[in-house]
Amino acid sequence: MNKVTSMVQGKCPHCQQGDVFAHKQFYHPTKFSKMNETCDHCHTSFFPEPGFYTGAMYVSYALAIPIAFLVAMGLSYGFGASDEVSLGAMMMSILLMTPINFRLSRLIWLYLFGKTKTNQSNKYIS
Ligand SMILES: [Zn+2]
Predict the structure, then answer these.
(1) Residue-number span of the structural domain to which 76 is assigned
(2) In this predicted structure, what is the pLDDT of residue 119?
(3) Would you say the pTM of this structure is higher than 0.85?
């Protein structure tokens, strides 16, 4: 399995076997954000340092805005929708994409900047 496939499937960046997120249901309102502390396969920490995922907000923004923009422009120019309808659809697209966007942005951040270590002593538990 290559890194991109592993990332999209929510697998550990080190061993690509264990799951980063605790639940498979990514649209459950309370479960979609629950992450495992460590990989259950190789014990790599998914929380390398305190506040590690703060930077994932920028990734989330970079993922959400182009989609919302395309939805609004598609409705406005493609279907002649009013500005209010386009704005509402844009906000709904952001809202509906939140669970996917949340998970994908954290996974991208973890794969890019998470220095994954197999050593148990490097494990940080928040
Ligand atoms: Zn692992």
Answers:
(1) 3-122
(2) 46
(3) no
Residues 6+ apart with CB under 8 A from 114: 13, 46, 48, 52
Q: Which residues of the chain have pLDDT under 70?
A: 116-126
Q: What is the pLDDT of residue 116?
A: 59
Distance, CA 20 to ligand 1 centroid (Å)?
Answer: 9
pLDDT, residue 24, reads 85
Q: How many domains does the chain have?
A: 1
42 C-alpha to center of ligand 1: Å? Answer: 4
Quote the ligand 1 centre to 15 CA distance (angstroms).
4
Residue pair 20/104 in contact (Cβ under 8 Å)? The answer is no
Q: Identify the pLDDT of residue 26.
A: 78
Q: What is residue 117's predicted lDDT score, i.e. its pLDDT? A: 53
- Taking the alpha carbons at both ends of the chain, their separation in whole angstroms is 30
Give residue 46 CA to ligand 1 midpoint distance, Å: 9
